[in-house]
Specification:
Pfam families: PGM_PMM_I, PGM_PMM_II, PGM_PMM_III, PGM_PMM_IV. The protein is α/β, with parallel strands linked by helices. The protein folds into 4 domains: about 5-160, Alpha-D-Glucose-1,6-Bisphosphate, Chain A, domain 3 (3-Layer(aba) Sandwich); about 165-270, Alpha-D-Glucose-1,6-Bisphosphate, subunit A, domain 3 (Alpha-D-Glucose-1,6-Bisphosphate, Chain A, domain 3, 3-Layer(aba) Sandwich); about 270-360 and about 375-380, 3-Layer(aba) Sandwich (Alpha-D-Glucose-1,6-Bisphosphate, Chain A, domain 3); about 390-475, Alpha-D-phosphohexomutase, C-terminal domain (TATA-Binding Protein, 2-Layer Sandwich). The chain is about 35% helix and about 20% strand. It contains 15 helices and 23 strands. Strands 1, 2, 3, 4, 5, 6 and 7 form a 7-stranded mixed β-sheet that branches. Helix 1 packs across helix 4 and helix 8 packs parallel to helix 9. The chain is globular, with a radius of gyration of 23 Å. It starts with 14 loop residues before the first strand and ends with a helix.
């Protein structure tokens, strides 16, 4: 019997929990068994590929999960240390379901699992993860796997190193040969980019000099949290770019599936601008191959800058707007056969990478685009960063619905039109143009506000007005 409640650690898209209080060998072995029974065996998958990050607990947990899978006669390929997008590569290239042990940017005390079907297709709450959770809980409540009948043959376990193949595949998708030499500072945050960046960029075809920051794999994150979404975690990178006179800087999160960019002056480049830049390149590649631009689709979420769909439409392609979250992006990409998808959280998805997200491939696009012209990165991205943005602002609100209603009433009085695809988006098309998004957190009484406008003054006025309305109940109290 176990006291662990898997409902506390199995989230909407993955598994996250404290080690060993919530995740230990017994728990992940049960999750492996459930994964085999719910996902692998019904779809007659060829097997499962398992990778892990640099956290101290990851190798043991990965082996325990593999053992739970193998009980059911399913073969397991262990790829060892890997970034999350390296695991997705293995899932696609080997045509196997996958499990990646990582807690991404969470602190050292945590670990987790990201699961996928073969071809890196996601496994979330609505696509099998809830069933995996419930079956694993049933097994744990009855003493684990000890009473399970075993098949005639347990699954075979083998080890395969896919790092070189992963790196070569990425280089085959973006050609940097012929570009001007670049100096790039890379902050790996002691995460898995310290493992993958040298494999990808330290190659004769890469006219790139890398200045490494925190490439030592260390799951205690001794220098700063491996979450570049937090501005203070970019400060070392920003200073190093200026100090070395580098052309740009790249920062990766702990499992290296997200990539953030700073320009030659150490200024952050918004993920929306990177989305627009990469979209333009992917559309151009399709057109060069003979595609009609109108047949090319690119997915973006509701909080991406207005510059993203404008860029896509200006090139004759089709912007597809979707809700925030990788399951929604991937579903829309598959439905529309989109060549690319981007989120404002710096997740970038590629058709040619099994519709999965890879920060490294987005980084290669930025390097290639910069190397193909003589100007600085700040000039290159200026065309894609044409609006003033607030960034995400969180407010703790007791009555979310009432706060949203107040903001909506105010915005409609200003001539804005409502959209409720994902939370509330209010858009005013008349000059001065502005829009804002209010999205409620799924787990906390928080409202997340994003504002964008034609100019900084308007953005600040709208931001302050909406924040005042959202936080009105607290001020009144």
């Amino acid at each position: 019997m176990t006291s662990v409640r898997l409902a506390d650690v199995v989230k909407a898209y993955d598994v996250r929990g404290l080690v060993p209080e919530q995740l230990d060998v017994e728990v992940v072995r049960a999750l492996g068994s459930a994964f085999a029974q719910v996902v692998v065996l019904p779809e007659e998958e060829a097997g499962v590929v398992v990778g892990h990050d640099m956290r101290d607990s990851s190798p043991e947990l990965a082996r325990a999960f593999a053992a739970g899978v193998a009980v059911h006669g399913v073969d397991v390929t262990m790829i060892g240390l890997a970034s999350t997008d390296q695991l997705y590569y293995a899932s696609g290239a080997l045509d196997r379901a996958g499990a990646m042990f990582t807690a991404s940017h969470n602190p050292a005390a945590y670990n987790g699992i990201k699961l996928c079907r073969r071809g890196a297709r996601p496994v979330g709450q609505d696509s099998g993860l809830a069933e995996v959770r419930d079956l694993a809980q049933w097994l744990l409540d009855r003493g684990g796997l000890h009473e399970l009948p075993t098949p005639g043959r347990p699954g075979a376990l083998d080890e395969t190193d896919v790092l070189a193949d992963y790196a070569g595949y990425l280089r085959s998708l973006v050609d940097l040969r012929g570009g001007r030499p670049l100096t790039v500072v890379v902050d790996a945050g002691n995460g898995m980019a310290g493992h993958t960046v040298p494999a990808v960029l330290d190659h004769p075809d890469m006219p790139v000099r890398v200045v490494p920051l925190y490439f030592e794999l260390d799951g205690t994150f001794p220098h700063h949290e491996a979450n570049p979404l937090v501005p203070e975690n970019l400060r070392d990178l920003q200073a190093a770019v200026v100090r070395h006179g580098a052309d740009l800087g790249l920062a990766f999160d702990g499992d290296a599936d997200r990539c953030f960019v700073v320009d030659e002056g150490g200024r952050p480049v918004t993920p929306s601008a990177i989305t627009a830049l990469v979209a333009a390149r992917e559309i151009a590649k399709e057109v060069a191959a003979g595609a009609d631009p109108s047949s090319v689709a690119v997915v973006h979420n509701v909080i991406c800058s207005r510059a993203v769909p404008e860029t896509i439409a200006a090139l004759g392609a089709r912007p597809v707007r979707t809700r925030v979250g990788h399951s929604f992006v991937k579903a829309q990409m598959a439905e529309h056969e989109a060549v690319f998808g981007g989120e404002h959280s710096a997740h970038y998805y590629f058709r040619d990478f099994w519709y999965a997200d890879t920060g490294m491939l987005a980084a290669l696009h930025v390097l290639a685009a910069l190397g193909e012209q003589d100007g600085p990165l700040s000039a290159l991205v200026a065309a894609y960063d044409r609006y003033a943005a607030s960034g995400e602002i969180n407010s703790r609100v007791a009555d979310v619905a009432a706060a949203v209603a107040r903001a909506r009433d105010w915005a409609e009085a200003q001539g804005a039109v409502a959209d409720t695809l994902d939370g509330l988006v209010m858009t005013r098309e008349q000059a001065p143009l502005w829009w804002f998004s209010l999205r409620a957190s799924n787990t906390e009484p928080l409202l997340r506000l994003n504002v964008e406008a034609a100019d900084t003054t308007t953005m600040e006025q709208v931001r302050d007005a909406v924040l005042g309305l959202v936080r009105q109940e607290d001020a009144d109290g």
